[in-house]
Amino acid sequence: MLDEIRRVVIVGVGLLGASVGLGLRARGFAGEIIGVGRREQTLETARRLGAIERGETKLAKAVSDCDGAMIVVVAVPVSKFGEVFSSLSGHQRPGMVITDVGSTKGSVEADAAKFLSMPQFFVPAHPMAGSEQSGPEAGQADLFEGRPCVLCPNDQTYEGALAHVTALWELLGAKLFTMSAEDHDRQVAAVSHLPHLMAVMLAMTAGEMGPLDLASSGFRDTSRLALSNPPMRTDIVMANRQPIGEALDRLVEVLGEIRQMIHEGDADGLLERLTEVQKRRADWEDQRG
């Protein structure tokens, strides 16, 4: 299916965007890969690393003069999607498929409906991969290998567009899931967005309680996500604030239950809860393979 694609345009060549380009090249994609960004230095870095063939600061130039099918991968902060879609709208045509790597899908789907002239050719996607690092230097050709990637087509999505985006992520080695934008946002609030906020809360609390001289591997591992890009994370939280708020409410309830067990000296109850969660966590690890 990707043999029909003559060009991939990656809008935003940071960690995820660069990894898309590196992964496509490593897996034999023969078409042209163009990067779009605001900073020429970043585009040059991505080109030097092999993530793109050339860079453009103007999106219109990147998507013009292509005589075949094209996939545009939007890899910018979710707060910038409306701006990108608005710029793309006048250049849309049959044969141009648009997808993304955004961490929220409800807000992205709404922006597509509002700003794209042909939203049926947009297939929302979220590869569950990344790190606390950023920039094209952090890109990895195998970043998506074996990782979940969620596709969120709706009733208006063109089947051919879905087929091309499916082929893209399969080539990159992702394990595909399909669900609605609403289901996606609710699930990632618990398994992706909440863990980041918990890492922030842990680092904040530990720092306020005293020096970190004795902090070691446990603190390092559990607070790693607090190193994530603050503007990007703020964008994500604001875009998915209702599901995240619900996840935080449940977390507060669980913290209250654990606190009560400790306050009352309920060792049996605490042991039961720790054992239950240990098994659940181990089962998840086993299922990942």
From TrEMBL:
Keyword Metal-binding belongs to the record = no
* A GO biological process held by the record: tyrosine biosynthetic process
GO MF assignments: NAD+ binding; prephenate dehydrogenase (NAD+) activity; prephenate dehydrogenase (NADP+) activity
Any single Pfam family the record assigns to this protein:
PDH_C
Looking up PROSITE patterns in the UniProt record yields: PDH_ADH
Q: Which InterPro entries match?
A: 6-PGluconate_DH-like_C_sf, NAD(P)-bd_dom_sf, PDH_C, PDH_N, Preph/Arog_dehydrog, Prephen_DH
> Prephenate/arogenate dehydrogenase domain spans which residues?
6-289
Q: Which UniProt keywords apply?
A: Oxidoreductase
Q: What is this protein called?
A: Prephenate dehydrogenase
